[in-house]
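seq:
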Amino acid sequence: MRADLSERDRDRIIEMAWEDRTPFEAIEWQFGLGESEVIALMRREMKASSFRMWRKRVNSRPTKHLAKSAVRAGRFKSKAQRHISNNKISKR
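struct:
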């Protein structure tokens, strides 16, 4: 487990781990933590009951692993969608 993670990074990793469509590979790419390290972080940072609920949820989600996921890189993205920081469609 990396000791250099800030509180903000830990919060973001927990948030990403709870998201259904964010695979563990994305967390590893962004923060350098593998699946087992994410599980250890979740176990340490969460209440025991919350951790058990999360593990049950993750085990039933194939989207948490890229190899098992039916979601592919070619997902639809509207041309009207702007950059993430300014994603409102302008009034015409």
